[in-house]
Design goal:
The chain has 136 residues and is of the alpha+beta class. The protein contains 1 helix and 7 strands. The chain has a single domain, classed as minor pseudopilin epsh domain (minor pseudopilin epsh fold). The strands form 2 sheets. Strands 3-2-1-4 form a 4-stranded antiparallel beta sheet, covered by helices on one side.
């Protein structure tokens, strides 16, 4: 019986391919994890600014004569007369500090202040003027 030439991968070749895949996977995972944290902070900053603007709009629209937005870490609560009572929790491990904003009718002008939303790696600033809030 003649010997046939069998074609196959050697153990060294298989181990090399597995090692390359492991290295690429670990680098990709670190990059994706960092990107997710950046997105969490950006979303939190945008949400906080939106809730501050929403609170002011309640007063301007006449739905309430006064309204308050209170930010405590990752929790946001909106209260006011006219039955306004809402609460939200920011997703991700983001901390926006302790901040309170009060708006009173007729024009809903509030206090200007700047504060940050942050996690371990990323910080975004919320700029609150007398008339609106913006994430930067």
């Amino acid at each position: 019986m003649p010997k046939e030439n069998l074609k196959a991968f050697t153990l060294i070749e298989v181990m090399l391919v597995v090692a390359i895949i492991a290295i690429i996977s670990s680098v990709s995972w670190l990059t994706l994890n960092r990107s997710k944290k950046n997105v969490d902070v950006s979303n939190a900053c945008t949400q906080v600014a939106a809730y501050i603007n929403k609170t002011r709009n309640y007063v301007i629209s006449g739905r309430a004569t006064q309204a308050t937005v209170k930010i405590t870490g990752a929790n946001i609560s909106i209260t006011g007369d006219g039955g306004i009572a809402e609460s939200y929790t920011i997703r991700g491990a983001v901390d926006c500090g302790d901040n309170t904003f009060n708006y009173v009718s007729p024009n809903g002008i509030g206090i200007a202040k700047t504060f940050s939303c942050k996690n371990d790696d990323t910080t975004k600033t919320v700029e609150v003027s007398a008339y609106n809030a913006v994430c930067k």
